[in-house]
């Protein structure tokens, strides 16, 4: 049978999921601001328990010079001092421009990268202090869905072997029980169990990402890092994968770190949203507050770039266009790293690094404008 015929035979279950397109998902997010809040409690409850706690996380990559005698000359500051919490049962969205350190943050949290500094607590246990053997056991509870559904699956393994690998690595099942659980997982994520012996190249992009989701679920984890799981998919498939993740979260009580650069998609799925810029945290609050009352100028610019499916509103609203390029993490600016592109920057921004602090209940921001809000209107309080 020709490969194209195989793909058409393996009916893509994605077509049965609604909404049909990413545009529909974006429109829902725009027209129903309380969508995320209706799904679950938006933001963190006062008594919410932190499943993951990140303190002062840094991930710097050394740059070496020399052929025979290698000498470190600089460092890429991919992640430069993050502190935040992810609460049990919530979805924390992590957004920012490409190259801001989102994926590196996710990989550092689950110890795929060994952090340069900082601590990562999972269920009050410091992952950075664990031995390789201890971390191996902990990985049963911590899994990752990778960005590229093509590169993240071994082309030489059947789908059944790919999904079964966590079961075998963690000794969770043997013999016929492995086959039974694999078929059950395929059914859960919307794949036909009859295709268990097929290879990744015989599936569509949406189906491959579902295989990745099934693999992440195999060990029955508590926490999943979803690293841009929809960015490599057609817009008609993106909303379906998000809905699948929502359904799985409700069924299995999962906690997500959802990494993406599409703010409309992040709002659709997240309880709270964190905004990163050049390796640092700019703002963190619940999804609705971030859209309705952003406090950081960078967040304002990101939100202004999200299209609204209403021609009249889109034609009249003001778009904030940032000037210049994102600085290099090899040589980040002094003071506030955003001051080179900020329309409200003043002298203090160039010298002092703003603290990432809670300015309102549940609303964290790193910006000097929170101390001098009148500067947004062009008023210099030092001259009065």
What labels describe this entry?
384 residues, alpha/beta, Rossmann fold, 8-stranded mixed sheet, 4-stranded antiparallel sheet, 14 helices, 32% helix, 21% strand, globular, ABC_transporter-like_ATP-bd, Peptide ABC transporter substrate-binding protein, ABC_transporter-like_CS
Explain what this protein looks like in three dimensions.
Pfam families: ABC_tran (PF00005), oligo_HPY (PF08352). This is Peptide ABC transporter substrate-binding protein. Belongs to the ABC transporter superfamily. Residues 1-42 are annotated as: Disordered. GO terms for molecular function: ATP binding; ATP hydrolysis activity. With 384 residues, this protein is of the alpha/beta class. It has a single domain, classed as P-loop containing nucleotide triphosphate hydrolases (Rossmann fold). It has helices at residues 3-9, 22-31, 35-39, 102-109, 132-138, 159-169, 176-188, 205-217, 235-252, 263-269, 287-292, 297-304, 311-316, 347-351; strands at 50-65, 71-87, 91-95, 117-122, 125-126, 142-145, 223-227, 255-259, 272-277, 280-286, 357-360, 363-365. The chain has an 8-stranded mixed beta sheet with strand order 6-7-8-3-9-10-12-11, sandwiched between helices. Helix 9 links the parallel strand 7 (223-227) and strand 8. Helix 2 crosses helix 9 (235-252), helix 6 packs across helix 7 (176-188) and helix 6 runs parallel beside helix 8. The chain is globular.
């Amino acid at each position: 049978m020709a490969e194209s015929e195989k793909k058409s035979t393996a009916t893509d279950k994605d077509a049965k999921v609604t909404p049909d397109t990413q545009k529909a998902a974006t429109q829902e997010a725009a027209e129903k601001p309380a969508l995320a809040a209706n799904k679950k409690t938006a933001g963190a409850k006062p008594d919410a328990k932190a499943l993951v706690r990140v303190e002062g996380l840094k991930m710097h990559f050394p740059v070496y010079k020399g052929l025979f005698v290698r000498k470190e000359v600089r460092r890429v500051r991919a992640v430069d001092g993050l502190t935040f919490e992810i609460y049990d049962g919530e979805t924390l969205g992590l957004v920012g421009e490409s190259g801001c350190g989102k994926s590196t943050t996710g990989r550092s949290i689950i110890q795929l990268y060994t952090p340069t500094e900082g601590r990562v607590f999972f269920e009050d246990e410091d992952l950075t202090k664990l031995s390789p053997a201890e971390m191996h056991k902990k990985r049963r509870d911590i899994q990752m869905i990778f960005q590229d559904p093509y590169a993240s699956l071994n082309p030489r393994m059947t789908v059944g072997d790919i999904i079964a690998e966590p079961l075998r690595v963690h000794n969770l099942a043997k013999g016929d029980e492995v086959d039974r659980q694999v078929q059950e997982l395929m059914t859960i994520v919307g794949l036909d169990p009859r295709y268990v012996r097929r290879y990744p190249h015989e599936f569509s992009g949406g189906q491959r990402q579902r295989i990745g989701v099934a693999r992440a679920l195999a060990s029955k984890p508590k926490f999943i890092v979803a690293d841009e799981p929809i960015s490599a998919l057609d817009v008609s498939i993106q909303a379906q994968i998000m809905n699948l993740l929502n359904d799985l979260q409700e069924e299995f009580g999962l906690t997500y770190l959802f990494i993406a650069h599409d703010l409309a998609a992040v709002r659709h799925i997240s309880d709270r949203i964190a905004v990163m810029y050049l390796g640092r945290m700019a703002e963190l609050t619940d999804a609705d507050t971030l859209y309705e009352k952003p406090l950081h100028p960078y967040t304002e610019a990101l939100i202004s770039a999200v299209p609204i499916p209403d021609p009249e509103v889109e034609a009249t609203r003001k778009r904030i266009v940032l000037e210049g390029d994102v600085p290099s993490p090899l040589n980040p600016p002094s003071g506030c790293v955003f001051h080179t592109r900020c329309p409200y920057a003043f002298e203090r921004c160039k010298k002092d690094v703003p603290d990432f602090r809670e300015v309102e209940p549940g609303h964290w921001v790193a910006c000097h404008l929170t101390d001098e809000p009148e500067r947004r209107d062009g008023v210099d309080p030092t001259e009065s």
